[in-house]
User: Fold this.
Amino acid sequence: MDLPASQAAVEATAVPESPMAEAIFRTLLYADVFDFPMTGAEIYHFLIGLTATPDDVRAALEGSPYLAQRIEQMNGYYALRENAQAVEKRIQHEAASSKLWPTARRFGHLIAHLPFVRMVAVTGALAMRNAEERDDIDYLIVTTPGRVWTSRGITVALVRIAKLFGVSLCPNYVMAETALFQERQSLFMAHELAQMVPLSGKALYAAMRDANGWSAKMLPNAIGPFYDEVDVSPRGAGRVLQRLGEWLLGGRIGDSLERWEQRRKLRKFAPQASQPGSAAVLDDERIKGHFNDYGEPTIWAYQERLARFGLPISADDSMKIVEMS
Assistant:
């Protein structure tokens, strides 16, 4: 006995009809954890686990029966049908992000000129233009070896000045240029690497992406940053002033200051770093102040969505920690 046409159509698309359709849907499921409908260009750039061309992605978005049943396109954004209302939220966040970005650039320029700083990148929601009006501006900062704690201390002084003007800066990851490799390897960290927006030290940004080549397997199209910004690395008089600061804070005096600042902050951070759910890393080369780990909850939420839609969970959909050899 023949099935009704509507039931036959549902059964025919119960599983993705192509690897491309599945990759696109996985990409949108991950974005849905953040209530983040995506443009076609974003889907292509952050496509999970599959190398493709923009035309490949476009063809699947327009012609896949599997996707047609599960996603909806509104105002240039693609979202899960069950969460299509997130499109309006995305539009609001994009407007809020547009207001925050000039401030992020201005203070990123200032941070880039501080002693020992070699790279500055915007991370977090603002990097994806998904911030709210009062969100912090998150920065990843790369420094010369042996001056991670000093650099963070100077940056915190700038943070306090910014606060007087109603600006909330958060230098939540400071690392030495000898510590670019990321041991926590997951789709969450691959996204963090791929979506950061470098403001200075673009050669060092490229070196960081190369050092974490494992992420290319998860996001093979995200070779460079999705959003490109003018490099504000110190030049001319700015570089001279930066070098002067490095000379004043160099040598034995600087070494002593570095050790003193590290000991002082480790005592302060110890209770937070030891609490359950912390992903903080505090050592000679890295100050990762992630006292509330967003990585594992994000991966769990993504896995829940995969299971709900009957998609298999692979090793790349999990969290693992790999020590640098």
Q: What stands out?
A: Residues 8-84 form a domain with the Arc Repressor Mutant, subunit A fold (CATH 1.10.10). The two ends are 62 Å apart (CA to CA). The longest strand covers residues 169-176.
